[in-house]
Amino acid sequence: MIAPEAIIRLEDGAVVLLDQTRLPGQRCERRCTSVAELIEAIQVLAIRGAPALGIAGAMGVALAAHAAPDHLAGLRRYVAEQAALLAAARPTAVNLAWGVAQAQAELDRDFGSPQEARGRVVACARRIHADEVARCRAMGRHGAGLLGADARLVTQCNTGGLATGGYGTALGVVHALAERGDVPHVYVPETRPLLQGARLTAYELAEAGIGHTLLTDNAVGVLFREGVVDAVLVGADRIAANGDTANKIGTYSLAVLAAHHAVPFYVVAPTSTIDPATPSGKAIPIEQRAADEVAAFAGVRTAPAGTPVRNDAFDVTPAALVTAIVTEHGVLRPPYALAGERP
Ligand code: MRU
Questions:
Q1: Using CA atoms, how far apart are residues 190 and 255, in angstroms rounded to an integer?
Q2: Which of 45, 94, 39 is nearest to 61 (CA)?
């Protein structure tokens, strides 16, 4: 399993990330020494996945504080400007804005010096990282309790340590099953257009020695038809107060298939992904990404020039299709009323 500090860490004046755009071919680090560089890394998905974005957001605030003027009023003003840019880098995963807000809130206290204020923000960012990994381990234990021995699972996108700063949400449950001595098998849709399933989930499962099978996104129906799926396990980018869940595009289709075939559909997400301020999925902003991601494959244009493209990065699964939501606190069942769930 990849160590948390190898996925993302805060150094003096830099956020250092494992560059996920290069995986699985190359395992190399990307060093962000300004908020602008970190925003770029977030937007190209060098760091991605909701909890990891929350960690990156908090570390980005520490980066801003490091570069800020050396008097408290100027520091707060500069950090506020940079934090607003950072929080808006990607719109769907609520963890990003949450992580930024947590770190920024540290500056609301009284400080003897800018140095003391900077130290506070750094400590907060590192605490959020450690807390997310601990939340993942707790979710792993709760989620494993829902599944029998040697479960056959379908997931979507990548929800492992890469997406969370360590261990994983839905994939964390798979790790917990393996740690308990089970032999789970994970069906991994490739997750077009950016192939987080093929590039990252297959990589993490292979590293952990966990059985898996890669398939195209449009092949998953066959698995349900053949009756070889015991449960669907997915993560989330934002869960509205009523349980409606935004996750990687393709998740809703999986939920519909699961409901049709009476297969349980579990969302595994920390409370930092719950957004009490968003009443239902209708209010969740869905990131639209560049047309080129769809109109080309591996850098080669596939569609005729000028083809109109729709490229929603996420979809929303209505709460009615979610069998249970696993958080670090335990297993929640419908009807969901999540307004009070926040770390
Ligand atoms: O666009 P991405 O790769 O950031 O999307 C990530 C997902 O959709 C994950 O499923 C989600 O963030 C949960 S990760 C623990």
A1: 17
A2: 39
What's the confidence (pLDDT) of residue 112? Answer: 87
Predicted pLDDT at 288: 98
255 lies in a domain?
Answer: yes
The CATH number of residue 248's host domain is: 3.40.50.10470
From the first residue on, what is the mean pLDDT of each consecutive set of 10 residues in the chain (343 residues)? 97 97 98 98 98 98 97 96 98 98 95 93 98 98 97 98 98 98 97 98 98 98 98 98 98 98 98 96 98 94 97 98 97 91 77
Contact between 86 and 39 under an 8 Å Cβ cutoff? The reply is yes
Q: Which residues carry out catalysis?
A: 237
Strand partners, 10: 15
- Answer yes or no: do 203 and 93 share one domain: no
* 108 Cα to the center of ligand 1, angstroms: 31
Interval between CA 160 and ligand 1 midpoint (Å): 9
Q: Are residues 24 and 46 in the same domain?
A: yes
Strand partners, 187: 154, 213
* Same-domain check for residues 298 and 150: yes
Q: Is the pTM of this model over 0.90?
A: yes
**Residues in contact with ligand 1 (CB, 6 Å cut-off):** 45, 48-51, 93, 157, 159, 163-164, 169, 196, 235-237, 247-248, 313
User: In angstroms, rounded to a whole number, what is the distance separating the alpha carbons of residues 163 and 82?
Assistant: 23
Q: Whole domain around residue 92: which residue ranges?
A: 4-136
